[in-house]
Amino acid sequence: MALLLGVDTGGTYTDAVLIRDETEVIASAKALTTRKDLAIGVGGAVRAVLEQSGASPTEVSLAALSTTLATNALVEGQGGRVALIYIGFSEQDLDRHGLNEALKGDPALILSGGHTHAGSEAKPLDTEALIAFLETESAGVSGFAVAGVFATRNPAHELEVAKIIQERTGAPVTCSHQLSAKLNGPKRALTAVLNARLIGMIDQLINRAADTLAHIGIEAPMMVVRGDGALMSAQQARSRPIETILSGPAASIVGARWMTGAENALVSDIGGTTTDVALIERGLPKIDPEGALVGGFRTMVEAVAMRTTGLGGDSQVHLNTDGLDGGVTLGPRRVLPVSLIAAEASDVVHAALEAQLRAPVVGEYDGRFVRAVEGQPAVGLSEREATVLARVGTGVRAMGDVLRTRMEHGALNRLVDRGLVQIAGITPSDASHVLNRVSAWDRDAAEKALTIFARRRIGSGDTVAEDAKALAQMIVDQLTEQTALTLLESVFCEEQASFGGNPKDLARHILLQRGLAGHRGVLALDARVNVDVIGLGASAPSYYPAVGDRLRCRMILPEHAGVANAIGAVVGRISQRRSGTVTSPSEGKFRVHFDTGPRDFTASAEALEALEKYLRADAVAAAEAAGASDIHVHVSRDIRTAEVEARSIFVEALLTVQASGRPRVAHQ
Prior knowledge:
38% of the residues lie in helices and 26% in strands. With 668 residues, it is of the alpha/beta class.
C-alpha cells in the first residue's frame, strides 16, 4: 500500500489530503495559511490529516505541493524588489507587453549588446555599464531578470551578465532564454521579471514546507505542481518559480477530473483570493497556447487555459458610489475578513468596532484594520512608507488610528503591495457568518462591521442597506452575479462559433441576460450554459448552487471539492518539456541554436537529428532528476517551408520534446 500526501497552500487555507494507492481519499484536513510562517499552516494541516487517518508519517511514500501564492501575488501586485537588465533593446521596448507596469518602479538597465536573428553578435556587451549599475542599484534587490535581444538564438550575453551579477551580488538571476525557446524579447523579459519577483516567496514556501515535513517525520520526496498540472521537483521549482503560477488552479483541474471522471466540463474553483475557471476537454485540461495570463500579464509560461479573476471569499467589498442606486462590488484585492482578524485579536477589534458604532457618522476607515507581516524585509521604503509601517507596529490596529492623511493611504497600499502589511475589512466570508452559513470565526465582529458599512450613504442619500443581514445578502448576491459573469466570459472565450464581440461585453449583453432569465413576451428568449460546471473550493457548496440556477446548468459539487487542489497535487504526472530551433541563415546551411551557442550543419535532417538528440537527453535527465519512473518521450516537429520557383525551401523548425512519467513511489 502506498500513501500519497497532497498539500495545497492557498491565500486563506492550507489543505492536506491522504490518498491510498492513487484510488481512494482516506483523510482530508484544513488549517489557516500563516503568512508570517507558512510552516505553521502546512504543519497544522498535515498533522491533522495524519491524526484523522491514523497513518504513521513513515508510511507516506510521496508528498506533493501545489500553491496559489504565485498566482495571488501577481493578481495582487505583490513580490520582492527586482532589477531588469535589458540587453540590446531600446527605451521604447519597456512599454511593450506591460514591462514598465510589471517593474512597478523597480530599476532597469538598457545595456548595449545582443544578437541577430541568425545568432551572431549584434553589438559587444557593455560590461562596464553593468558593473556601474550594480554598484548603485543592487541594494535591496531580491532577484535579477536578464533578457537579451534574440537570446533564444544565442544566449551568450545573457549568460555573461548572469555570471557577473552572481559574482558581485550573490542574488538569484533569471535568464529569459531559460524560460522559453520562443522569440518575442519583451514578452520573455516580462516573464523573467515576474519569475525574479517570485523567487524569494516560492523558495521560502518550499523550504518551510520541506522542513515541516521532515520535522513531522515524513521522509518521502517532495514534488511541486506546475501551471500545466504536471509535477516537477522542489529544486526545479526553486529556480523556475514562474512555472508555479496557476499551480493551485491546475492542480484543482487534475483533482476535478480524478474525482468526477468528467470528459467535458467547466471547472470553477473559488478560493479566498481568486476564482479560477478552466475547461476540461476530452478528459484533459486545455492548455493556453499563448502562455498563462495572470493579473493582466501575458507570460510565456505554458499553463492551463485559465481565466483567473480577483473574486473570492475574502474579496474586499466596495461601495458603489456611481449613480443613485448604490450597491456593492467585490475584489480584486483580497483582505483579511473582520471575523478572522477578530478571532486572533478579539479585544482590539471589538473595542474599535464598538466605538465606531457609537459615533454619529461613519468614518472613512471604520470597520477596517491593519497589521504588519512578520519576517518580511522592509528595505527600499520611502520616508512616508517607513513612517506608516512604524505606526502599524507589531499588533492589530484600527486603520483610522494609523492613517493621518490621504497621502499616507497611498503609502499603506504600497506596503500592502510589498507584502509588508495586511488589511482587514468586510468580505463575503463575513457576510456568510452573518447569514449563519458558516461559523468558523467571530460572527459578532462580522455583524458589527457589516452594521457599520450598512450605514454608509449612497448617491440618493439613503443608507446602503437596512441592517447587517440585508447587507450580507446583498454581498452574497453580488458574489453570485460576478461569478456567473466570470463563467460566461470563459464560455465565450471557449465557444467555437464566433459572436463577433468582446467576451466581457457579450457576457453582459441584455439579450443573453434576458435569455438566462427565461424572458417571455412577444419575444421568447432562452439561454443556458451547455456544459456541466464543476464547483470547487471550501465555500463552493455555499455559493455555487445559486450560480448553477443563474446559468441554468448542472452544477456538480464533488464530495471532496474543498481539497481538490491537494488531491490534484498528488495524482498528477511528472513532465519535462524542452524546445529548440533550427534556422537556415543561407542556402545549404542549417543552424541549430543550442543553449551553448549556435552550430551549423550542411543538411536539415542532420541538424534536426542533432537537436532532437540534445533535447531528448536534456528532457529525460530533467524528468529523472524530478523523480519520474517509466518515462515516455513524445517529440513534435513544427517545420516551416516556403515555395520558391516550384521548390520547397526550408525556413525554420521548432522541435519540442516532452518526457513524462509517474513519480517513483516506494511501496511500504
